[in-house]
Design a protein that fits this description.
The complex is a heterotetramer, with two copies of chain A (414 residues) and two copies of chain B (161 residues).
Chain A: H1 9-13, E1 22-23, E2 26-27, E3 29-30, H2 41-54, H3 64-83, E4 92-95, H4 98-113, E5 119-123, H5 132-141, E6 144-148, H6 161-165, E7 168-174, H7 186-195, E8 199-203, H8 215-218, E9 222-226, E10 237-241, H9 243-248, E11 259-262, E12 267-269, H10 283-299, H11 301-323, E13 327-329, E14 341-346, H12 351-360, E15 363-364, E16 366-368, H13 373-379, E17 384-388, H14 395-412
Parallel strand pairs in A: 3-15, 5-6, 5-7, 7-8, 8-9
Antiparallel strand pairs in A: 1-2, 4-10, 9-10, 11-12, 13-14, 14-17, 16-17
Chain B: H1 4-7, H2 10-17, E1 31-36, E2 43-51, E3 54-63, H3 66-79, H4 84-105, H5 111-120, H6 138-158
Antiparallel strand pairs in B: 1-2, 2-3
The chains are: A alpha/beta (414), B alpha+beta (161).
Bound molecules: pyridoxal-5'-phosphate (2 copies).
One pyridoxal-5'-phosphate sits between chains A (97-99, 127, 129, 174, 178, 203, 205-206, 226, 228, 237, 371) and C (256, 279-280).
């Protein structure tokens, strides 16, 4: 069986060395890219070369090596700005991951602007990274959290949105659910938020690796992402925010790099974006991130998106055909608003056990609550199994998933 | 390479499919203890009745994978009717069985092995030994120990050691 | 001229590929290790291999690849714990750098325990990483900061310490000044703090790469460090703290990994150390850090320390011989309490200009305030030039420094 | 490869060794503006007197490297006695001269070059052109622009544009 895909997956796969691995006599079928993506050779090599050739601390030395390192680091910032269609590199703050970026929004912007009784609107499909920082602020400040409910199809139920937004200061939502795959219409949400005089923060950790994002077209106020899910290294993520917002926000972490002056009595802050980057930043990681963006741009996010739609559709059909009413899959059936994520339950077998059997066939899927416990409670399940696709997956991978699931069903059959 | 049969022994699957002592005692008077595995969402809810020195009754609720649920069920069968001291000894012995691998993961070398042997010394684990295969699957060790950690919490509440 | 050193520096240098570089026709003389160290091939390669072979997210997957990645990550934690003589790996919290670690102490421990009027004692030689977080807390909470003064020799002036510690909750000091090179007697400071019922936090960013540290022998309560200064990668650092302290502290950043349970109404926290590690941690970086520790252990920190004492002494003598009273160097003259750091001023030439001339000879030194502006104010200078040594430096490097400085003096001579 | 002579032209070293308009005017009535380079610790303190439309007096204090101090000195000589509008034009022109490289660093392509040419158009920079060599040393650009950013602050305070 073959799909009419425009990605040459076989060729792309050769760029990802880990995919050559075998476990228990089977080739690795990596279906956990929503947890972290694999890395192409170009990303790995550029960091290797950085450490061998260019390594120095940034923004600190007059010497040529430090100047090269600084240029490489700031070039990554400019590259990320262009990738997101930001208006200036100053709008890109590097953090260690998306989670830190959301904490930055909650602590710095939220800390300055939110007071007792102020309202932040979240949704029931949020990742803990966009839940816990707000719980922490709620505990400290007494802000109120409101939750956008979900439809049966796993979409945001927008009927109540105007009421939820009434008097709200911020709407903070994911643009692509890491459990349901649901793609939210950020522009629509931004318009609704702005109409209610609220700002909008977007957790785009799952979107930016897979779908072209234009923060200006989104009309968003804050956008968080993470490098390791977009072919880049661990240890780097970031926040895009509108320049005037960043300008007005108090610092987040304190230390070197983020200051203008320090005395025994106090300190003043540096310009954006450095104001929010305390201490030595993830330098080699930024260099790796730039290579990851180059790779994604070369392949083309449009082709990636098309490929994932086709592959997800293929896999969903195959799963339902094979397991009929013995499988429950979650999320929208409309593939045009769904990313390459399939969470499911196989009747009578716990997600952990499913995943354990799959591992014997070298099929790597994730089992658990996917850092989205409010959603799991809403779905009424303790855990699901999740298969997630990326540009290096193909129908053979989906087929391997189905075959291995059949084996799991057989193994646990009463 | 350990196979699935090492993990899913028949007796484990049996406890999973037909869990013993399932339910919740009214609490109070029973003591209630809840255990979570934060990484996978498994949960175990124990309600236990300690009278004098004895665990006179104990029911298990919650949800999770075959290992966590079978381990709960086997634990309940092993502990019910035992003295608190015996229950604690079982906890130690079971954790020792599991920690052999856990401590290796922590890079602590092989000392833990000896310790484990000491803790196991003389304790009859019976059916519970079927769970020994779990140590070959480090990720699942927490599934197996969840019920036991929760029991320990419960005992600490009713009869602080 | 040759020193009786026990390190085979020529052999070690071959492990550091960047040292083969040339600038403007001269071999790189890297004298900025206090800003960041260079990386040995073993560290670079182990990360490269991790990405090619073992990459997966940690603590999240049942499958073998994820198990391998988790084991590699947690192995690094255990390795770091042994390196610091910590009693358990649970006492090691990974952060993105030393700065985040100090912010963790200030925000989490300080946030829970310090209230208006409470006292934190710092010293005038602190890096901004151990100043600004406390200023931020002071602005928020009204805590009082007290400053240990310095002797003319650039040591802590401990005469007033008992008074400064009176009623203090915390003493937070560096164990090795990144400007003066001063090595502080942590055990003595810890005893003084504990005698006053205060805790002690140690900024050991400059110590751990160069001097064997035993947190238990120090009797410290918190110790912060950073990976990139100890032959490791950027993007990782950490905090060691006593288990019972960590247990009692509220979380720092919120998100995945650090929770036990999350509902729409609130959350509970995970066990230590994960309670403090929100989001995907620096996984490959931890693997690199372990290789760095292995490298340091193989070379032996005792030999490194001896080498640095000899080389620092050699360089100080050479500088004073050559430039006589036209050079001012800072810090203790007693080499036994001094690390491999030499800050200096050449009469009538600004540090920036010195460093610019040195760059033409490929001598890489740092010029500026070294993120220690309260100290610079105390010294009464806007900036110094700083040369810092590590295990890959030798007398030839010190000679190159002296020669290049002579050229700078000539260039700027009136 | 640019050499030291590109950076340290004779006229720059001259201004560094013998800075013009050194000191501080009493403020008030003069306006005081302070500029810091957070990365290297350079500081420039300007006190300026604007009467009507004219920068009638301007003194420079502070400390820093030869480039920041020479640039301050040259700036003071160029601006003193000029109208506020002319001073602002000089600021724009000087920053344009410096931004050619800065914007390239930011990866913005070559557009900035044209913009810079426009801003420079018709403005006589005179001695200041000696600072052009700084653009070959990206790290030092902030040293050169510090005085000018500080002047801009000062003018914004006395005569908001
Ligand atoms: C003494 C000291 N503390 C803290 C730091 C901060 O380290 P990092 O920038 O890696 O957070 C440094 C290094 O710049 C330092 O020298
Ligand atoms: C939707 C979403 N948001 C945030 C995150 C957090 O990313 P990180 O762990 O890199 O901070 C994730 C990934 O786990 C995610 O799927």
């Amino acid at each position: 069986m073959s799909l009419d895909v425009s990605l040459d997956v076989a060729a792309l796969r050769r760029d990802f060395p880990v995919l050559e691995r075998e476990f228990h006599g089977h080739r690795l079928v990596y279906l956990d890219s929503a947890a972290t993506s694999q890395k192409p050779t170009s990303v790995i090599e550029v960091m290797d070369t950085f450490y061998r050739h260019t390594n120095a601390n940034v923004h600190r030395g007059v010497y040529t090596l430090a100047e090269e390192a600084t240029a490489a680091f700031e070039s990554a910032r400019a590259r990320m700005a262009r990738f997101l269609h930001a208006s200036t590199p100053s709008e890109i703050v590097f953090t260690k991951n998306a989670t830190e970026a959301m904490n930055l929004v909650a602590r710095s912007w939220g800390g300055a602007h939110l007071h007792e009784g102020d309202v932040v609107v979240l949704s029931l499909m949020e990742h803990h990274a966009n839940v816990v920082p707000w719980h922490m602020l709620a505990a400290e400040r007494g802000i109120e959290l409101r939750w956008i409910p979900l439809t049966d199809d796993g979409c945001l139920d927008l009927e109540s949105l105007p009421q939820l937004l009434e008097g709200a200061a911020l709407l903070s939502v994911t643009s692509l659910s890491n459990v349901l795959g649901t793609i939210n219409d950020v522009r629509h949400l931004a318009d609704a938020a702005h109409a209610a005089d609220a700002l909008i923060a977007v957790d785009a950790a799952q979107t930016i690796p897979h779908v072209e994002v234009d923060v200006t077209a989104w009309d968003a106020d804050f956008v968080a992402w993470t490098g390791h899910k977009m072919l880049g290294p661990t240890g780097i993520g970031g926040l895009w925010a509108r320049e005037n917002l960043l300008e007005g926000m108090p610092p987040f972490l304190g230390g070197g790099e983020m200051i203008r002056d320090v005395t025994v009595d106090g300190f003043t802050t540096n310009d954006i974006p450095w104001k929010f980057e305390a201490g030595t930043p993830p330098i080699a990681e930024a260099v790796g991130l730039e290579a990851a963006i180059d790779y994604l741009d070369d392949v083309g996010l449009e082709a990636v998106r098309r490929h994932e739609i086709e592959l997800t559709g293929y896999a969903l059909r195959a799963l339902h055909e094979r397991f009929d009413d013995r499988i429950t899959t979650y999320g929208p059936s409309d593939l045009s608003i769904r990313g390459g994520v399939i969470s499911f339950l196989l009747d009578g077998i716990h997600a952990h056990d499913v995943s354990q059997v799959l591992d014997e066939d070298a099929v790597a899927v994730r089992a658990g609550h996917h850092c989205a416990k409010p959603l799991m409670r809403h779905l009424g399940v303790p855990a699901t199994t999740r298969a997630s696709f990326y540009l290096y997956n193909d129908e053979a991978d989906a087929d391997a998933l189905v075959e291995s699931l059949a084996r799991a069903e057989k193994f646990f059959a009463v | 390479m350990p196979g699935l049969e090492d993990l899913y022994r028949e007796i484990i699957l049996d406890h999973y499919r037909a869990p013993r002592n399932r339910g919740e005692l009214p609490s109070p008077p029973a003591t209630r203890a809840e255990g979570f595995n934060p990484l996978c969402g498994d949960e175990v809810v124990l309600t236990l009745q300690v009278d004098g020195d004895t665990v006179t009754d104990l029911l298990v609720a919650g949800q999770g994978c075959s290992i966590s649920q079978a381990s709960s069920s086997m634990m309940s069968a092993a502990v019910k009717g035992k003295s608190v001291a015996e229950a604690r000894q079982l906890i130690r012995a079971f954790k020792a069985l599991m920690s052999i691998h856990e401590s290796k993961l922590g890079g602590e070398g092989d000392d833990a092995g000896t310790e484990a042997d000491n803790a196991l010394d003389g304790v009859q684990l019976g059916d519970l030994e079927a769970l020994q295969g779990v140590v070959k699957f480090p990720v699942r060790i927490k599934c197996a120990t969840l019920a036991w950690n929760t029991l320990e919490q419960g005992l600490d509440e009713t009869s602080p050691s």
